[in-house]
Amino acid sequence: DRVKAITEFAVYLTAVRVGASHLIMPPAWREGLMVTKYISGNPHSYDFVRLSALLCMVFHKKALNAQLSLDELSFQTKALNP
C-alpha cells in the first residue's frame, strides 16, 4: 500500500471555561522530567458530541474511547526532554 498525502483539514471552534493553561509558559523545568505545554477546561455539554463526531471523521473511525474527568478535556503537546 502506498501512503496518501493528506490534503484535507478540519477546523473546530468552541467556547471552553479554561481551568488551567500552560501554553505560554510551561510548568517549571525540573531536572530529568519531561515538559509539555497544555490547556484544560470544561466545554459546553453538547460540544462533547460535536467534538467526538469531528474526531471520528478526522481519524476515519466509527467510535473512539476517551478518559474524561469531571467533564474536563485536556490537550497537550508532545513531551520535551530538557
How would you explain this protein's 3D organization?
The protein has 82 residues and is an alpha+beta fold. The protein is built from one helix and three strands. The protein has a three-stranded antiparallel β-sheet, with no helix packed on it. The protein starts with 15 loop residues before the first strand and ends in a 6-residue tail after the last strand. The relative contact order is 0.25.
Extended strand count: 3
Return residue spans where pLDDT drops below 50 for at least 5 consecutive residues: none
- Element-by-element helix/strand order: EEHE
Shape: globular
- Summarize the main sheet: 3 strands, antiparallel
Which strand order spans the largest sheet, edge to edge or round the barrel?
A: 1-2-3
Mean pLDDT value: 76
What portion of residues is helical? 10-25%
What structural class should be given to the helix and strand makeup? alpha+beta
The oligomerization state is: single chain
Cα-atom radius of gyration: 16 Å
In short:
16% of the residues lie in helices and 20% in strands. By secondary structure, it is α+β, with helices and mostly antiparallel strands.
Structural key phrases:
globular; 82 residues; 3 strands; 20% strand; alpha+beta; three-stranded antiparallel beta sheet
Summarize the SSE layout with pairings.
Elements: E1 16-21, E2 38-43, H1 47-59, E3 73-76
Antiparallel strand pairs: 1-2, 2-3
